Amino acid sequence: MEYRPHTILGLVRILVILVGNWSVRTAIAGLENVLAPDLYPDPLRFLRPLGTYGWFLIPIPFAWMILSILGERSRCWWASKRTTILSGLVVLALLAAFFTWSVCSAWFIHSKVV
User: Fold this and answer.
1) Mean pLDDT for the stretch of residues 52-58
2) Predicted TM-score (pTM) of this structure
C-alpha cells in the first residue's frame, strides 16, 4: 500500500481524539459531583464544550489524509513524502497535547476544590 503511513497516522489521530474526548468527559463527570452548583464563573466553562463536541475534531485526520495524498499525487512543492509525514506527526502531537492539557486542567481544578 503506497499510502500506508498516512493511513496509520490518520487512524492513530482518530484514536487520540476518541480517547482524549472520553478522558475529558470522564474528568468533567468526576468534577460535577464535587463542585458546588452555584460557582460563578464556572471553572469548567472551557472544558464542557470539548467534552460535548470533541468528536467534531474527527474530520481533522481525514482532511489531512486527503490533502497530503492529493498533494503527493499532484507533485506539489510542499508535499513530499517527508513533509507530509512530518506534518502528520505535528498534528498528532498537537492533538495529544491539547487533550493532555484539558485533562490536566480538570485535575488541577479538582485539586483546588477538594
Assistant:
1) 89
2) 0.83
